[in-house]
Records
---
Amino acid sequence: VTGVQTCALPIFLYYLLEKNKNILIRFAGAGGMQMLNKKDFSGLKFLIPPLPEQQKIADFLTSIDKVIELKQQQITQAESWKKGLMQGLFV
């Protein structure tokens, strides 16, 4: 990365934080109400690529999320169909 990137696209930031959720949870500590404050975040370092690369990464991950969602819907439909077939066997 050349230079320091000081801003991030919101969707890229979402994926970055989602991917590092376990690290953030450890920083937040145990207990019922987990919170991160500015001091907690100031100790974290992330390499942020340039904006065009962020957009490519975010677009790629978004398209994968859409495929996963579609496949999950297909699984749910197949399970419902299977349930209907099984109920038909025991009528």
---
Amino acid sequence: VLSAYDTAILLNQPSLERFEPMVKPGGTLIYDPYSLVEKPKRTDIAVYSIGAMEEAARMHNAKVFNMLLLGALIKVRPVVSVEDVVNGLRKALPPRHHDLIPQNEAAIWRGMELVTKA
């Protein structure tokens, strides 16, 4: 069990209250303001916002929510390339679901566009 995090993606108020203090100084916090009453308060970490819930609703596809968040993470902390994620999806998904890969890739790119420094 970890007691400190380099990066946290927080999607609701209880998670923000519990995990924001556990982000290491100099770390990164990404949040979706949709379910938050109060925004992150820390000034010793990099804080980013992405309206992933609103964008998934705008796209009429709740299933891309996680890919929007992944795009934000890749933009802020480029630990993997979009191309590697897409290749991973091709390997991990059964062929009958490969038709979903283009919309997942588009959601990743859209998440990269939407994330902003808070």
